[in-house]
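subagent[fold] <- orchestrator: predict structure for attached chain, return tokens only, no commentary.
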Amino acid sequence: MRSALLQRGVAEFVGTFTLIFVGAGAIIQTGGGNLTAIGLAHGLAIGVMASAVGHISGGHFNPAVTLGFVVTRRIEPRLAATYWFAQLIGAVLAAFMLTWLLPQTQVDAVNLGAPAVGGGIGAGSAVVIEGILTFFLVWVVFATAADPRGTFASIAGLAIGLTITLDIYIGAKYTGAAMNPARAFGPDLVQNYWSDAWVWWVGPLAGGALAALLYEYLYLRPVSPEPVGPPETGLEEPRPGDAAAM
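subagent[fold] -> orchestrator:
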């Protein structure tokens, strides 16, 4: 009998592998010079994979997203550890495959697609930018995938993927807009490129946790049992958990 833990872990591995292989691969192929192609490559990779296996693992593919589910107690610690392991291994293997398959001169020219601080800013500004960008991402994940009232629950992958694309459009020049410790870790490890590596751990993990806690507190754990209704209709609907509260 196949273990549910194995099934979910493999789904996270495949999704994260896809993100790094396609996302970093697009950076290598374009020499880092085509922002539209790079943004769409990352967004499409996540959008497609989240839609494909979201019903299996939730489609995190990102330690910061998983941490958001941990701090809001929406995932068990053992399962979260499995996700983190699968995400990091998937990222490393994808980076290895890229450096093995593609011309080394092209790989080295962009440090295997590893994110970097640039555009005239320092590491302090970069970590804040990564935190803000990841806040947007995890906020959308909770609003579309975790919230049962989410407007786009059945196609959450599309909204999540587009969020990554728009984040890359604003942040790529300054931080690489990784929004994901695994996205940075795979290329960093394989390329042995560790410049300001802490930025892509501290920023995304802090921003993701903050977004998850805020959305959970404001919208998923109501403080009172009074019924509320959608503003656009005026209809009264009970909030999630009202029955239990009453």
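orchestrator: received. Logging for downstream: The mean pLDDT is 91. The chain has one domain: 4-245.
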